[in-house]
């Protein structure tokens, strides 16, 4: 997916990355699609990169007689590919963990495993089949029923030592909020770029455990979006091959917010905004 972003920035230097998703662009081929919006004209352009070869794929929009490059992707993903990818990630996490444990214990997993080596590994796996990291993101409650994005932006801003601390009303009005209409995910992205200097901030709708863990391991909290609501992810927990996210939820209105621990498998999460340099 990173290769798709790099190529999109090269092809459209005056554009702003809107989203990057994994798609089935020509069944059964899978690749990354990055959508770029021209800052001047507002036109949107798509860049495709094959997941296996990492080669750029020429865009082919759908017409009355042609299916187009990725017209089947949504249907295919909804019919099982995405769930299979989640299961693959869980299995891959456990495999990587065992391989690392073997390396730490001096066990060569490329040769036949002896009873002695099994005993070396068993204690390590049983004791450390759980790992976590939590960032120091403060919990804040949203002040009105349409301030979930301002509250989430406020948490991120405090984490990055924004001085003075912006109020939720300031963030709402800075992003053009009016008439009690909620802000959009693009407004959160824009705030992080303009006010926090995080110009690599990007919206993702293809959600993976690997990406979430990588963000937290690099000390980058991110927006965790469910339908019509924004929260902040500040950490993760991997336990028994499942991945959980530590969430700062600004609900209920008028409260101090609610800390949550959510399992990613079967989650209601629909989008993330990764806040990057």
Automatic annotation (TrEMBL):
This is Peptidase C39-like domain-containing protein. InterPro entries: Peptidase_C39-like. It comes from Methanosarcina mazei. It comes from the Archaea. Residues 135-250 form the Peptidase C39-like domain. It holds the Pfam family Peptidase_C39_2.
């Amino acid at each position: 997916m990173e290769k798709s972003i790099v190529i999109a920035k090269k092809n459209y230097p005056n554009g702003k990355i809107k989203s990057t998703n994994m798609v089935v662009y020509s069944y059964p081929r899978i690749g990354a699609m990055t959508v770029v919006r021209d800052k001047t004209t507002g036109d949107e352009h798509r860049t495709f990169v094959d997941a296996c070869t990492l080669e750029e794929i020429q865009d082919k929009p759908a017409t009355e007689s042609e299916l187009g490059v990725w017209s089947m992707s949504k249907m295919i993903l909804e019919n099982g590919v995405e769930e299979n990818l989640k299961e693959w990630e869980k299995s891959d996490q456990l495999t990587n963990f065992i391989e690392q444990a073997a390396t730490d214990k001096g066990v060569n997993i490329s040769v036949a495993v002896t009873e002695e080596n099994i005993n070396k590994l068993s204690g390590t796996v049983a004791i450390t089949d759980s790992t976590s990291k939590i960032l120091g993101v403060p919990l804040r409650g949203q002040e009105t029923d349409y301030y979930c994005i301002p509250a989430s932006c406020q948490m991120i801003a405090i984490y990055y030592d924004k001085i003075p601390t912006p109020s939720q009303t300031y963030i709402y009005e800075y992003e053009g909020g009016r008439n009690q209409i909620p802000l959009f995910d693009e407004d959160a992205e824009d705030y992080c770029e303009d006010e926090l200097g995080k110009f690599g901030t990007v919206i993702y709708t293809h959600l993976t455990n690997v990406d979430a863990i990588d963000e937290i391991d690099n000390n980058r909290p991110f927006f965790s979006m469910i339908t019509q609501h924004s929260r902040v992810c500040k950490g993760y927990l991997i336990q028994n091959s499942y991945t959980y996210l530590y969430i700062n939820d600004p609900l209920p209105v008028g409260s101090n917010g609610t800390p949550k621990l959510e399992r990613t498998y079967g989650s209601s999460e629909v989008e993330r905004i990764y806040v990057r340099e």
